[in-house]
Automatic annotation (TrEMBL), chain A:
Record's GO cellular component terms: plasma membrane
Similarity comment: family membership: Belongs to the binding-protein-dependent transport system permease family.
Cross-referenced PANTHER family: ABC TRANSPORTER PERMEASE PROTEIN, INNER MEMBRANE ABC TRANSPORTER PERMEASE PROTEIN YCJO
Protein topology in the membrane: Multi-pass membrane protein
Keyword Heme: no
Gene3D superfamilies: MetI-like
Lineage summary: Bacteria, Pseudomonadati, Bacteroidota, Cytophagia, Cytophagales
Organism per entry: Larkinella knui
Residue intervals of the ABC transmembrane type-1 domain: 66-278
Protein name: Sugar ABC transporter permease
From TrEMBL, chain B:
Name of the protein in question: Extracellular solute-binding protein
Ranges in a coiled coil: none
Intracellular or extracellular location(s): Periplasm
Major subcellular location class: periplasm
SUPFAM superfamilies linked: Periplasmic binding protein-like II
Alphabetical list of InterPro entries matching this protein: Bact_solute-bd_prot1, SBP
Pfam families cross-referenced by the UniProt entry: SBP_bac_8 (PF13416)
Species annotation: Larkinella knui
GO cellular component, one term: periplasmic space
Family: Belongs to the bacterial solute-binding protein 1 family.
Database matches in Gene3D superfamilies: Periplasmic binding protein-like II
Transmembrane segments: none
Length: 286, 423
C-alpha cells in the first residue's frame, strides 16, 4: 500500500464527515450552548445559566402546546393506522382498478402541504366553506370546523390523515404482501374466521410495519406546523398551537434564540422518550 | 487540485459581502410607487452631489421586509439608509447599537424641529435619549363607510359612537338568502391572534377612546384602564351579536365593494383600490374611528408610521443624512404623496399651503390628511411585538370567543405584559 493509497479512504469519507460536522454536529452543539444563553441574534449572547430551563417549566403556553401536540397524536395516529390498514387490506385483494386507487391514495402525499392546507381551509370555512354550504343545503346546522376550540384540532387531524394516508397504505401493502399465503390456507383448513385470521396472522406478521408506521406518524405528528400555521395560526384560543409552532414563534417572532433552543432540546428528548415507549409497547402487545 | 482552484475562487469571491464601490446604498420598499420615488430622488442627488455617489435598491424579496432587515443586520450586509422601517422595531435595533444616533449629526435637530411637533419628537426618542429614526410616512387607520348603504338606515350617520355603530350593525345585518345565517355584516376585521392585526382594530380604537394614551410608560403596562375595557366590550358586542363576520370574507370579490360589509377599518391605500374597482354609483366616505358615547376631544388613531434609519455600517452618515433630508423636505414630501398616495409625517399637513394643491386634486384623501394631526405610532419598547401578542391572546379569548369579561381580559393582559417587562 502506497502512502497515497493510505489516505484514499479518509478522502472518500471526508465529504460526509464535513457535511456531518457542519450541518449536524455543529448545530446540535451550538443549540445546547444556546440553551444557557439569552440571544436575540443582533446583540451579543448573554450567559443566563439555567434560566431558560426554569422558564420552560413555568411557561403555561408551552405546556399547552405540548398538550395540543399530544392530543393531535392521539387523534391522528389511530385514525391513520386504521384507515391506512383498511385501505391496504382492500387493495391487497384482487380488485379492479387497484393501480388507479393506489395512485389516487398516494396523490395527496406528493402535493405541497401548503396547497393542501389552503384547499382544506376553503373547504372548512364557516360561512364560505363548501362543507358547510352542503350542510346548509341539506338543512343541517353548520359546523365551526376551524373556529371552535374543541373542534379545530380534530379538523386538522383529519386533514393531515387525508394527506399522509397514501404513504402508509403503500407501507402496509408491502407488509401485507410479505405474509405467506400458506398461513391463511392453514387457518382456512382449521375453520378460522376472517377476524381471527387478521388478528392472529396478519397483525403479528406485519408488526414491524406497524411499528414503522407508528414511529413515522409520531415523528411527523410531533413536527406538526404547516397546517395550524396556515389554517388557524394556532387558534382558536391556542387550541391548535403545536409545540413546533411555539418554538418557531419564540425563535423567529420574538428572537428568543436561547429559549427557543431550550424548548427544541426538551422537545427532542420528549420525542425520543415517546418513541422508546412505543417501541416497547408495540413489540409486546402485538 | 489545480482544476478546483477556479471553483474555490468563485466560491470565495461570491461569499465576499463587502461593497467594493464607494457609493452609499439606499434601500427602499419594493412597491412601484416607492421605487419610482427612490429612483427620482437618487438621480437628482447624483446630479447635485457627484462627490457623494449613492444608489438605490428595492429591498430584496423575502417573506417580510422585517425579516430581510434582520438577516442583513446579522450578516452585516445592511444598506447605509433604509426607508420603511416600522417604528416599533427601531428600539430593538437601537439597543443592539446597529443604528446611527441621528441627533449627533449636524443639522438634524434643527430640521426635526421644523418638521415635527414636540409630541411627535417625544414619541420617536429612544429610551437612551437619542433619536435613531427620521419620521417619514404615515397611513392613518380610519373607518371607511359605504355611505349609500348606511345613509338608508334609521341609525345615526357616521362618524360613529359605539352605541350608534352597534345600532347601525343591528340594522345592517341581514340573512339575505334566508338560510338562517347572516350573510351581510356591518364590518369585518381580522380575527386571527396575530400580533400585528391588533394594530388595525384594537389599537386604533384604544387610541381613539383614550385620546392617544400609551400602552407602556416607563417600562410598565398602563392599559389596564376603562378605555381599553370599553374597547374590548365594544368589539365583543360586535361579534356577539353577529354584526361583524368572524371569517375572512374572501370569496370572489372584495367584501366592501360587494357590499357584504358596509364599513372597514383601513388606511389611505384603500382609496386607490376602491376608485379602481368600484361599480358606478358606489359611494363611500372616510370617518374617524368609533368612540365611546361620552368621548370628548379629538379622535386619535394609529398612524402606521414607517421611518428612515441609517445603519452603523454606513461610512458617511453625514452624507446619508443630507440625502435623507431631500426626501423629507416639503418637495420630497409632496412627491411622496404624488407618487405613492401615502402621507408624510409632518405637522399641519392639512393646512400647509404647500400641499393644498395636491389635496384639492385628491379630495378623497383629505380626511386622512386631516387625521394626520391626531395619530400615534407605537410605544418605544424593545418587546412591543410580544406586548401586542399578549393583547392578541386576550383579545381572542374575550372579543372573539366571549370566554372572558373585558375587565378580566385587559387585567390579565396588563399583568402578563408587566411580567414580560420584568416588573
Amino acid at each position: 500500500m502506497t502512502r497515497r493509497d493510505k489516505w484514499i479512504p479518509y478522502g472518500l469519507v471526508a465529504p460526509y464527515i464535513l457535511h456531518f460536522a457542519v450541518f449536524v454536529a455543529f448545530p446540535v452543539v451550538f443549540s445546547v450552548v444556546l440553551t444557557f444563553h439569552s440571544w436575540n441574534i443582533i446583540s451579543p449572547m448573554e450567559f443566563v445559566g439555567l434560566a431558560n430551563y426554569t422558564r420552560l417549566f413555568k411557561d403555561r403556553l408551552f405546556w399547552q402546546a405540548i398538550y395540543n401536540t399530544l392530543r393531535f397524536l392521539i387523534i391522528h395516529i389511530p385514525l391513520q393506522i386504521v384507515i391506512a390498514l383498511a385501505l391496504a387490506e382492500l387493495l391487497n385483494r384482487t380488485i379492479r382498478g387497484a393501480s388507479f386507487f393506489r395512485a389516487a391514495f398516494f396523490l395527496p402525499v406528493i402535493v405541497s402541504g401548503v396547497v393542501v392546507t389552503i384547499l382544506w381551509q376553503q373547504l372548512l370555512g364557516y360561512n364560505m366553506g363548501m362543507l358547510n354550504r352542503i350542510l346548509t343545503a341539506i338543512s343541517l346546522p353548520r359546523v365551526p370546523w376551524l373556529d371552535d376550540p374543541t373542534v379545530a384540532m380534530y379538523s386538522i387531524a383529519v386533514m393531515v390523515t387525508w394527506k399522509n394516508v397514501g404513504l402508509y397504505v403503500i407501507l402496509f401493502l408491502v407488509g401485507l404482501q410479505t405474509v405467506p399465503v400458506q398461513y391463511y390456507e392453514a387457518a382456512d383448513l382449521e375453520g378460522a374466521t376472517s377476524w381471527q385470521k387478521f388478528r392472529f396472522i396478519t397483525l403479528p406478521m406485519i408488526n414491524p410495519t406497524i411499528f414503522t408506521v407508528v414511529v413515522l406518524s409520531t415523528i411527523g405528528g410531533f413536527s406538526l406546523f404547516i397546517e395550524p400555521y396556515i389554517m388557524t395560526e394556532g387558534g382558536p384560543m391556542n387550541s391548535t398551537l403545536s409545540a413546533v409552532m411555539y418554538i418557531y414563534r419564540q425563535a423567529f417572532q420574538y428572537y428568543h434564540m436561547g429559549y427557543s433552543a431550550t424548548l427544541g432540546f426538551f422537545f427532542a428528548l420528549l420525542i425520543l422518550f415517546v418513541v422508546a415507549i412505543q417501541k416497547r409497547y408495540v413489540e409486546q402487545e402485538i | 487540485m489545480h482544476k478546483l482552484l477556479p471553483i474555490l475562487l468563485i466560491l470565495l469571491t461570491s461569499c465576499e459581502n463587502r461593497r467594493t464601490d464607494q457609493a452609499l446604498v439606499f434601500w427602499c420598499s419594493n412597491n412601484a410607487g416607492e421605487i419610482a420615488f427612490a429612483k427620482e430622488f437618487t438621480e437628482r442627488w447624483q446630479k447635485q452631489r457627484p462627490d457623494k455617489p449613492l444608489r438605490y435598491q428595492p429591498i430584496p424579496e423575502g417573506q417580510s421586509s422585517e425579516e430581510i432587515i434582520l438577516a442583513s443586520v446579522v450578516g452585516k450586509t445592511t444598506p447605509d439608509i433604509y426607508a420603511n422601517l416600522w417604528q416599533g422595531l427601531v428600539e430593538m435595533y437601537a439597543k443592539a447599537k446597529v443604528l446611527v444616533p441621528l441627533d449627533t449629526l449636524k443639522g438634524f435637530r434643527e430640521f426635526l424641529n421644523t418638521r415635527c411637533d414636540s409630541s411627535m419628537i417625544a414619541e420617536i426618542t429612544s429610551s437612551d435619549g437619542h433619536i435613531y429614526q427620521v419620521p417619514w410616512k404615515v397611513n392613518p387607520i380610519m373607518t371607511v363607510c359605504n355611505t349609500r348603504a348606511l345613509n338608508g338606515l334609521q341609525a345615526a350617520k357616521p362618524p360613529y359612537t359605539y352605541s350608534a355603530y352597534l345600532e347601525a350593525g343591528r340594522q345592517f345585518k341581514q340573512d339575505k338568502n334566508g338560510d338562517g345565517y347572516t350573510d351581510q355584516w356591518l364590518g369585518y376585521t381580522e380575527v386571527k391572534p396575530i400580533w400585528y392585526q391588533r394594530l388595525f382594530n384594537f389599537y386604533p380604537l384604544y387610541l381613539a377612546a383614550s385620546n392617544g394614551a400609551p400602552l407602556i410608560v416607563k417600562n410598565r403596562a398602563v392599559f389596564n384602564n376603562p378605555y381599553a375595557v370599553e374597547v374590548f366590550r365594544f368589539l365583543q358586542d360586535l361579534y356577539k351579536y353577529d354584526y361583524f363576520a368572524k371569517e375572512r370574507l374572501s370569496a370572489t370579490r372584495d367584501p366592501f365593494l360587494a357590499q357584504t360589509i358596509a364599513t372597514q377599518f383601513t388606511g389611505p391605500w384603500t382609496v386607490g383600490f376602491l376608485e379602481k374597482f368600484k361599480d358606478p354609483g358606489f359611494a363611500y366616505g372616510t370617518f374617524a374611528m368609533p368612540v365611546p358615547d361620552r368621548h370628548q376631544g379629538p379622535v386619535y388613531t394609529y398612524g402606521d408610521p414607517k421611518n428612515i434609519v441609517i445603519f452603523n455600517t454606513c461610512r458617511d452618515p453625514q452624507a446619508a443624512w443630507e440625502f435623507i433630508r431631500t426626501l423629507v423636505d416639503p418637495p420630497g414630501d409632496l412627491r411622496l404623496m404624488e407618487l405613492t398616495g401615502q402621507f408624510p409625517r409632518r405637522k399641519n399637513l392639512d393646512t400647509d399651503p404647500y400641499f393644498a394643491g395636491f389635496l384639492q386634486k385628491n379630495p378623497l384623501l383629505m380626511p386622512f390628511a386631516r387625521q394626520t394631526r391626531y395619530i400615534k405610532g407605537v410605544d418605544n419598547c424593545e418587546v412591543i411585538v410580544e406586548v401586542f401578542d399578549i393583547i392578541s391572546q386576550e383579545y381572542e379569548a374575550c372579543v372573539i370567543y366571549n370566554k372572558k369579561t373585558p375587565e378580566d381580559a385587559i387585567r390579565d393582559a396588563a399583568q402578563a405584559v408587566d411580567v414580560l417587562l420584568g416588573n
